Amino acid sequence: IIFHNVGSLGNLSVETFRMENVEELRQYYDLNVFKVISLNTQFLKIFEEVEDRVIIVNITSLCAIKPMGGMAYYCSGKAAREMYFKVLAEEKKNIRVLNYAPGPVETSMIDYIVSEAVNENLKDVFVSFKNQGSLLKPEITAKKCVKILLAGKFGPGEHVDFFDD
To answer: Which residues in 35-60 are b (16+ Cβ under 10 Å) and which e?
Structure first.
């Protein structure tokens, strides 16, 4: 089993229509997409002879399937990664692939959004999550992921969110 959990938000201080720093974009996609694909490829090479027992978990986000203003880097990176794993699941039907969205988790990423985002609506959403106590503890969402994996009731490359039944 391999968990792909790398995730950075990217530059929250630039609006989508002003994203012109190509080097910054390359660095973002290199970490959040390309290196994940490369690592996964090496993992599959090592376990090729037992790939019917391989489980791949991509930690994704609602942002992979629903755009959120002010988070173009993050949304597009998560969407690209999720689609890669869906295509992999389509091509390698004997490998179990789960795209798990852990929900809004209480991490330093939330503080970064609140302090760095130029999009006021984005800030408001996460300030509200914090103030209402709606953020999930990491161990709670991790337990839910394990429960989903143990039940095995997810389709190839399926996007499963913490809040799904």
So the answer is: ebeeebeeebeeeeeeeeebebbbbb
Which run of H or E residues covers position 55? Answer: strand 55-59
Residue 32 lies in a domain: yes
What does the DSSP 8-state code read for residue 64? G
**Distant-in-sequence, close-in-space partners of 76: CB < 8 Å, separation ≥ 6:** none
Q: For residue 93, what are the domain limits? A: 2-103+138-161
109 falls within a domain = no
Count the domains in the chain.
1
Q: What is the mean pLDDT of residues 118-145?
A: 96
Q: Is residue 123 part of a domain?
A: no
Please give the torsion angle defined by the CA atoms of residues 109, 114, 120 and 122, in that order, rounded to the nearest 10 degrees: 30
| Confidence tier at 165 by pLDDT (50, 70, 90) | confident
How far is the C-alpha of 86 from the C-alpha of 103, rounded, in Å? 20
Main-chain dihedrals φ then ψ at residue 57, nearest 5 degrees: -120, 120
Is residue 120 assigned to a domain?
A: no
Token look-up 């599959």 returns 44
* CATH number of the domain that residue 89 is part of: 3.40.50.720
- Whether pTM > 0.90 for this model: the answer is yes
